[in-house]
Design goal:
CATH class of the largest domain: Alpha Beta
Oligomer: single chain
Low-confidence stretches: none
Number of helices: 14
Strand content: 5-15%
Mean pLDDT: 95
Length: 291
DNA sequence: GGTAGACCTGGACGC
DNA sequence: GCGTCCAGGTCTACC
């Protein structure tokens, strides 16, 4: 079945897909011929369905490989809307960006939205898998988690959904180390899955909380495996841009841009973007760096 | 509050 | 083929 969803203008599906590397992580995918974003998801009913999301006038079209009942369609619609940030608007950021040559292109490209997973749990696990490793290993970890522990698609069992907290919570640390190659991250992911599965930690509530950003950041930092970089990355996913996800790449790029390649620390990165206030995360993320 | 060392994997390199 | 070194953030112990 197929249906459409409207987006807050301006909207560009390719801009969301290219906003960061999530589209390369299982169970996301890109259709070679059409360029549509694909995703395999397990619904609340435990049904596993495949989505193919393409551009449509004023928004996106969503093709599902099965017929959905009205409740399931509402669930998938809400999920896709969250993943693509269809309701997000960036007028205030664009007004500032137009005055900065290094950000002028974000307006014409409709940049600002970051591709998200349906659940914050999934995005926390993904973010932990990006830390202290190379991107190729991150791709491998996510693929292994999906391949070994995700629920299969009935029509094509080779395709699987991202494992739920409940599915991971019953595993042991050794399985996450050896099968998913999570290494020292295994106990962090296991602890997180168990806390979400038993209700101790309500991550989904953080998607809509009115909590001030510093307080929300403290909540994220309380998760084992989530440090300053990971917390800032997750805040960006949650639509809060007051903190910068400073990693080794950020230090290198800011050093090149403003410090003649000299060794710098996080304080210099923060100083470089402080003037962007609540939008500093986006200013950093979409800055036209000299590669 | 700041710092050093350990954590784990995989790639690069030298032998 | 094997061993060593290194990069990549976070945690813990220690000062």
């Amino acid at each position: 079945m197929q249906f459409t969803l409207s987006a807050q203008p301006p909207f560009s599906l390719p801009a969301v897909v290219r906003s960061h590397g999530w589209a390369q992580l299982a169970p996301f995918g890109i259709e070679e011929d059409s360029g549509r974003l694909t995703y395999v998801v397990r619904l609340e009913s435990s049904r596993v369905v495949a989505l193919a999301i393409g551009e449509a006038p004023d928004g996106v079209s969503v093709e599902v490989d099965a017929e959905l009942d009205p409740l399931e369609q509402t669930e998938v619609g809400g999920m896709v809307s969250w993943m693509l940030g269809l309701d997000q608007e960036f007028d205030a950021f664009y007004a500032l960006a137009q005055e900065e040559p290094k950000l002028a292109r974000v307006v014409e490209r409709a940049q600002g939205r970051l591709l998200r997973s349906p659940t914050l749990f999934e995005d926390v696990v993904r973010t932990i898998s990006t830390t202290n490793t190379q991107w190729r290993a991150t791709i491998r970890m996510n693929a292994a988690l999906v391949d070994h522990f995700g629920a299969p698609l009935a029509a094509d069992p080779a395709r699987r959904a991202f494992p739920t907290p409940e599915q991971l919570a019953v595993l042991d640390e050794a399985a996450l180390r050896s099968e998913a190659r999570l290494g020292y991250r295994a106990p962090y992911v296991l602890e997180l899955a168990q806390a979400v599965a038993d209700g101790t930690l309500d991550l989904e509530a953080l998607k809509s909380t009115a909590m001030p950003t510093p307080q929300l950041r403290k909540r994220l930092l309380a998760i084992k495996g989530v440090g300053n970089y990971a917390a800032a990355n997750l805040l960006m996913i949650l639509g809060r841009y007051d903190f910068l996800p400073i990693d080794s790449w950020a230090l290198k790029m800011v050093s090149r841009e403003w410090h003649d390649g000299e060794q710098i620390g996080p304080a210099e990165v923060e100083a470089a973007f402080a003037r962007w206030g609540e939008w500093q995360g986006l200013a950093y993320w979409f800055w036209a760096w000299e590669e």
